[in-house]
Amino acid sequence: MKALASDIDGTLVFNQQIKKQDKEAIEKYQKEHLFGVCSGRPRCALFDLEKLKLDFYILSSGAEILDKDLNIVQDFPMKKEIVQQIFNEYHQHAQIILQTGNADVFYTTLKEDYNPKLKFISSFKEVEHEIIYGISLVFKDDKMTKKACLEINQKYQES
Description:
22% of the residues lie in helices and 28% in strands. It is built from 3 helices and 11 strands; from the N terminus they run βββαββββαββββα. The chain has a 5-stranded mixed sheet, with no helix packed on it. Strands 10-9-8-11 form a 4-stranded mixed sheet, with helices on one face. Strand 5 and strand 6 form a beta hairpin. It is elongated. The relative contact order is 0.14.
């Protein structure tokens, strides 16, 4: 059996829509093969794929692999103590977004964000019960981004 995975944004989904011909091609392909998605998106951000009956989902850049019923096949959560250290060190200097196993929301330190799936948090304590699959840091400029990237890669290279 063959399997094919597609990225989501700008490949399969455009403006929160899947083209009719793409949906039809996927359905035809699935008569003999498996079709799924592979994306940096977290589990809670699959809203525009609901019209497709996918065979598998590779989410949060490979950290969470789900079957067609959204059951975990395999996952690779981050170590909480590392996420907590990064969160505590950088939350005053960057917007932080945490991808978790929560099917309803992901978390951010930015209050002004418009996405209803984002839930505002002010401390790591609010998410310590969650399984964490990804952490994103958004800085104000490239210089701060590069500095933090070097620091994090150096400090956690063995993790």
